[in-house]
Design brief:
single chain; about 90 residues; Small Protein B, Chain: A; two-stranded antiparallel sheet; globular
């Protein structure tokens, strides 16, 4: 898939209702194994997710990625902390 042609797979609509969003950033997420297929199948929930800056890096906490059905022992923890990929000049 060429850069910039990706589609949005998940959105936290409740955040726009509960909070005043001043600025948004587009970020990549470091994923492992079957998480990629589960997210492509729209098996992701951002309802309680939040980003936190730790040691100059941004991490996403509480994003739930449901286990992939055909993943068996290769599935990962659904609520694990994931690193966000941002341009350094934005931080």
């Amino acid at each position: 898939m060429p850069k910039g042609s990706g589609k949005q797979l998940a959105q936290n609509k409740k955040a726009y209702h509960d909070f005043f969003i001043e600025q948004t950033f587009e970020a990549g997420i470091v994923l492992k194994g079957t998480e990629i297929k589960a997210i492509r199948a729209a098996r992701v929930n951002l309802k309680d997710a939040f980003a936190k800056i730790e040691n100059g890096e941004v991490y996403l906490h509480n994003m739930h990625v449901s286990p992939y059905e055909q993943g068996n022992q290769f599935n990962h923890d659904p609520l694990r902390t994931r690193k966000l990929l941002l341009h350094k000049k934005l931080l």
